[in-house]
């Protein structure tokens, strides 16, 4: 086996393909030979923030190359996500080989392609953390006996599409916002109501659909006034709980002034790795989160069955080329030219 591999590595505020040493697994870790990777907004954002020499990328699908004594079989198809550009320990998925904890991958069912598998892990893990840990919604294994309203703002985002499906499995009446052209997509994923967030009165439309009973919200947009708009859609008597995927900064006072019983917090999924995080602007970074890894490990056991039974449909895939083409995808995402689909790249 060669001792080096191709990887997308940070250089200044950009990234380039370099030849670097193949990573070696530590205790409890495996080496995966990467077949496909999927792009997330966090990838290009990280590139602009980290020093040179970091391997970029989170979502991957591939085969076990070195099982390092774990229960996985060499050659077994697996998928998961890592904290791209992390250094302690070093992590990054946009490479020919990667290292990950043996407990943090799922076996890819035969019915699922590498491309489809690669677009699942980080966004569905984010939805799971936000919904079932932060919002304390009923879990799909024990759905609510009485339907309750759940709003997914930005339902056609990568996280939003999984949140819609998980919300339906949890027994919710799912209201999803998105542009009108994507309403059929949202309804096909299980949304009970789709609302155009370009309408000036969309919070009032949500209130009508939820009969003034909205208490659970996942805000996948979390900027340009969306938390304040959501506060207007919450139950006027009970308030509600909003979880955002971006830091909320000084928005909390405005949200509470609109609805005094509203609770708002942000979450970042990298807490599943149980390592110190530099993202102190997120509400869940200042505390120990021992449950986060265990919850993700639990759901990793469920994902193969959901895929096999078509309970979870992977996000729409757009194949973009190889590792040499990832920077093109970064540019498209920065320019807002990626909508309701995931860009994937063949690595091997």
From TrEMBL:
Transmembrane segments: none annotated. Keywords: Oxidoreductase. It comes from the Eukaryota. GO terms for molecular function: oxidoreductase activity, acting on NAD(P)H. SMART domains: PKS_ER (SM00829). Belongs to the zinc-containing alcohol dehydrogenase family. This is Enoyl reductase (ER) domain-containing protein. It comes from Cladosporium halotolerans.
